[in-house]
Write the structure tokens for this entry.
Amino acid sequence: MMCVAALLAAAVAMVLGPRRAGAAPLDFRTADFRILSATTAAPIGKVHYAVSDAPASVQIVTSEARYTDGQHDVERDKIDTHSAIPIMLGYEHEFFHADGTRFMSSKANFSTGRGECTSYDGGKPVVTSKTFVFAKDTYAGAGIMLPLQASLQSGKRAPAIMHYFVCVPGPKLVKIEALAEPQASWAHYPGSIVRADIRPDFGWLNYVIAPFLPEMHAWFSAAPSFPLVGGEFSRYYKGPEIIIARDQATAAK
């Protein structure tokens, strides 16, 4: 199962930064999203995204999701924004119980190829790791939103194909396909919205496997820069389905 928040949380979105000459088309320094239950649409938390610059056109995107039951997640994405389409350099996502103890984490170093998925048994980490050859079109967590936004800005309507690192529950590298739907409305954000459906691509096996796998969805405003305004995804492998919806006060103008 794909996760973002690992949003996508979760994850869910969204790892975006300032626009500058020669850099990727990123559209905000900070942003806030509401977290809703995908089942009832009831509010269950909030997530805040912040962007900090590092040397040589590298940006660190940090997201902190806090839930009303006391749990929280922290995701950090290291992104090279020098090229036309952002390239992911590093990814870390940690999940915490209400008492502050860590119960799950995932990380990937896109330079060395090492991916790790960690669970905790009695407070002790149980680490599963694997070394991959990460192509430049490989993303993780909320970083998946970047190439989707770039694809929309380019005007392409063909499915976008890329790769995605995920813990399911061990480290896996999955080929995914994202397809933009026609502009429509969305209950959680005003205006004309473009939805992108994101699903694993298993080739001819899709007909057999796809019905049993969840999809991720991302919503972008149809404004010229296509800012991300929401997403729906699993918080983590076999975890609850959540929706994130951008607060209008921090939306791109």
In short: Confidence is low (pLDDT under 50) at residues 1-27, 204-213. The first strand starts at residue 30 and ends at 37. Residues 30-250 form one domain.
